[in-house]
Design goal:
Order of helices and strands: HEEEEEEEEEEEEEEEEEEEEEEEE
Helix content: under 10%
Number of strands: 24
Shape: globular
Strand order of the largest sheet: 1-24-23-22
CATH superfamily: TolB, C-terminal domain
Number of domains: 1
Structural class: mainly beta
C-alpha cells in the first residue's frame, strides 16, 4: 500500500510539474477617445506596438506607451483587422470586400477582391492567406502572390466545416488552422487543405467553455482564447484541453469589457478591449 501511495504521489507531482500556469504583467495601456474604434494591434517588437483605429483610419505606433508616429488613410476606415506579414501588412477591408496588402509606407500595392466578403482576421502559411469571412460563415484561402481566391470552405451551420460567424484565425505548431466561432461558441480546427480536424470547447460559462469566443492567439503550443462576453482569456494545452484562466501576477483573473482581437509575439501579449476603447500590452509569464 505504501508503495502504491508513493507512486500516486510521484505521478501527481509529475502532472503538476507539467501543468500550464500563465500570468500577465501589465506593461502599459492606451485608451482612445469617444470618437475612436481600436480594432486591432500589431506587436512590432518587444517594446513597440501599433494600434489600428477603424473609426479614424489611423495606425499609431507606441513605444513603451508613448506615441512615436501615426499615419491616417481614408481607405483604412471601417476595417476589421490589421496584421503584419514580414515587411508588409494585411488589411481586412470589409468596406471594399477585399484583403489588401499594404506597404510599410501605407500604400496599397495589391488587393484580393471578392464579390461578397466580410474579412475579420487573417493568418498566413506557405504563401497563402486564410481569412475568416464573418458574415458569410466560411474560410477563404487566398494566393498572396496572385492576389486571388483559390478555395473556400464552410457555410452557415453547426456541423463539421460549417461556421456561425467565424471571427479570428491562427495556425498552431502542427500547421492546423484554428477558427473561433462567435455564435457556435467553439474553436474549430481545420487543415490547410480546408478539411475538418477537430472541435475545441462548447457553449457555457464554466472552465473550458465559451460564451462569445472572439480573439485567439498562440504562445508555443498553448492556445489563448478571448471571450467577448465574459471578458476572460482562457488557455488550452496542445491537446485542446482547458488549462487555465489568465491572471495577473497576484493570481487574480484578468477581466475585460468586451474583447476582440488578441495577439502574441514572444512573451508580449496585446489585448484589444472594444468596450473600454483600450489596448493593453502585457508581459506574458509562464510558471513552472
Amino acid at each position: 500500500m505504501k508503495l502504491l501511495l508513493a507512486a500516486v504521489i510521484f505521478f501527481s507531482a509529475i502532472i503538476q510539474g507539467h501543468a500550464l500556469n500563465f500570468s500577465a504583467s501589465l506593461l502599459y495601456k492606451v485608451t482612445s477617445g469617444k470618437q475612436s474604434t481600436p480594432a486591432d494591434v500589431v506587436i512590432e517588437s518587444a517594446d513597440t506596438a501599433g494600434i489600428y483605429d477603424a473609426f479614424s483610419g489611423s495606425y499609431t505606433v507606441y513605444k513603451n506607451g508613448s506615441a512615436v508616429s501615426s499615419v491616417k488613410k481614408e481607405f483604412l476606415k471601417g476595417g476589421n483587422c490589421f496584421v503584419k506579414n514580414g515587411n508588409y501588412y494585411l488589411y481586412c477591408n470589409s468596406k471594399a470586400n477585399s484583403l489588401d496588402m499594404i506597404s510599410s509606407k501605407f500604400e496599397v500595392y495589391s488587393s484580393a477582391k471578392i464579390a461578397v466578403f466580410d474579412p475579420t482576421d487573417v493568418a498566413v502559411s506557405g504563401g497563402y492567406a486564410y481569412v475568416a469571412d464573418n458574415d458569410n460563415h466560411r474560410i477563404v484561402k487566398i494566393d498572396l502572390a496572385e492576389a486571388k481566391e483559390t478555395a473556400s470552405a464552410g457555410k452557415y451551420g453547426k456541423e463539421r466545416l460549417q461556421f456561425w460567424y467565424p471571427y479570428a484565425v491562427a495556425f498552431d505548431q502542427a500547421g492546423q488552422l484554428l477558427v473561433s466561432e462567435v455564435l457556435n461558441t467553439r474553436i474549430q480546427k481545420i487543415t490547410k487543405e480546408l478539411k475538418f480536424y477537430e472541435f475545441i470547447g462548447s457553449w457555457g460559462i464554466n472552465q473550458g467553455q465559451f460564451y462569445r469566443p472572439t480573439g485567439i492567439a498562440l504562445s508555443g503550443s498553448t492556445l489563448f482564447v478571448a471571450d467577448g462576453y465574459t471578458g476572460l482569456i482562457q488557455y488550452f494545452d496542445k491537446d485542446g484541453k482547458f488549462a487555465g484562466v489568465l491572471t495577473d501576477t497576484y493570481g487574480n483573473k484578468l477581466k475585460f469589457g468586451s474583447l476582440t482581437h488578441i495577439r502574441i509575439s514572444g512573451n508580449t501579449l496585446a489585448v484589444v478591449d472594444a468596450f473600454e476603447k483600450t489596448v493593453f500590452i502585457f508581459q506574458l509569464k509562464e510558471k513552472n
